[in-house]
Give the backbone structure.
Amino acid sequence: MHIIKLNAIDSTNSYLRELASKKLLDDYTVVITKNQTKGKGQIGAVWNSEKDKNLTCSVFKRNSGVSIDNTFYISMVTSLAIIKTLQLFQVPKLVVKWPNDILSEQKKICGILIENVIKQQDIEGSIIGIGLNVNQTQFPDLPSASSLKNLTGTLFDVEELLARIIEQLKYYFEKLEYDKHDFIKRAYEALLFRRLKPSTFKDVEGNLFSGIIQGVNNNGTLQIQLEDDIVKEFELKEIQLLY
Ligand code: BTN
């Protein structure tokens, strides 16, 4: 693993993306920083992380045969690798809230931001950004956020966690390279928060509706069973899971 350690940077994803546009990167090139000053979250959100406390890193993964229709497998593989790592460290009650928020005891402890690097209309590779709350204990204005320290009472070594996550990423990406799509999807869906439970969602107009999460499609849309047993697919921007 080629690791680039930075004392401070605006966003490890932006840094690695820029690097990938300039030179040919090895698989699993990692950028990690102790102080991310302008972290990016999903759908234009910001990702705040207290200096010296958490894992904020990005991993470059060359595309090995994932077609444009199957890009969500990269997301599933990443969620699985993080959950598996955290299970090994005895972090309690881990699930993935679609599409890729990692929850423990129903609190968000990790966010994932995947950006694809496109060259000549092909996905050359992906920048896998991981923000894992490790030793931070205060989350002002974020009542649904927590950290490994808050959940387990223990302080963790951030670089040790990174090394274990990379091991698990290699394991699950190998499954993907060997076309074990069913295995990956089944493992992901088995960890999906509120799957097969009646839940309440909010659409973009602010209307609430009930439905039951069934699973995901290869392109990442969420399948929700609505009234009259109709199953409809939703994109991330279209809905919010409330409870
Ligand atoms: C989310 O909104 O849940 C995704 C958060 C992703 C945050 C990580 S921290 C490291 C990497 N660099 C970024 O700018 N974002 C990702």
Remarks:
- The CA atoms of residues 66 and 221 lie 17 Å apart.
- The pocket of biotin is lined by residues 11-13, 36, 39-42, 45, 47, 56-58, 101, 111-113, 129-131 (CB under 6 Å).
